[in-house]
Fold each of these.
Amino acid sequence: MAFVPRVFVSGDQIAEGRAFVGGSDAAHILRVLRLGIGDSVTICDMRRNVYAASICEIAADGFFALLGARVREDGEM
């Protein structure tokens, strides 16, 4: 099984089936892990919703991820 990074974002960073990831999280994923368009990430919205996602667009200050199905996690994150 491949490693898929988990990223926590606020609810206002999710809109129209996409999530924006910026700051040090984006820098780590893009520069250190060297992920790019089409690579998988897991997005958590801090409301116990978890999305399987894939990077769909890279911007100067982060990236956008296309969200897949939402799963509700009741355990501690």
Amino acid sequence: MHVQPLFAMTEREALHRLMRDYPLATVVVARSGKMDANLLPLHLADRGAHGLLSGHVARSHSLWAQDPTETEVTAVFQSPNAYISPRWYVNGQRSGRNAPSWNYVAVQAQGRLRFIDDADWMRAHLAALTAAQEAGRPHPWSVEDASPEFLGETARRLVGFEIEIQALTGKRFLSQQRTEADRESLVRNLEGEVSLAARAVGELIKR
């Protein structure tokens, strides 16, 4: 991931927060000269220097079926994103030095993927992944609410994996290079957009 110093995210807490807030990652693997990218929900545990990711796939999934050996992977986590119109830049309108842009936050995690074919591990993983997403709900659902037979069948149909993160790179591209007046204008305009993602980006800029 190309990151200029102004837009770099380096704080471990901020990197992990984005990964937990937006856990559906694009997992990229290079095998036999071909790239394979899959969207997979990942659970982050605060273990090791950079953290430990865990996930799962069906046994028919290409990630497992084609080559179940350890492999290098890249997982990309991304916040909501939004198009930025040049008309929203206050100072840009005066100078004419403006162009369309896109605002977003992203984290890239790199490491080795190791498969775990164990039903007990899978049940614990599903419980942790579900608990993380249900936290804060008034009536959170738990895997214990499913029948033991169904949970056992599900665990047997899946295979798990862990990624020990070896490198973390973060990018916060939220018009930091613009003036305060420009950023305030961006927030106002994004809040007026129909897209919920655009409004979410406005909240990210305000932070």
